[in-house]
Amino acid sequence: TWPQCFPGSFTPVPHAEVAGIHQAVEFGNRMLTFLVVLTAAASGAGDGEHGGRREVLFYAWLMPASTVAQAVIGGITVLTGLLWWTVAIHLLVS
Question: What single-letter DSSP state applies at residue 15?
Answer without folding.
Answer: -
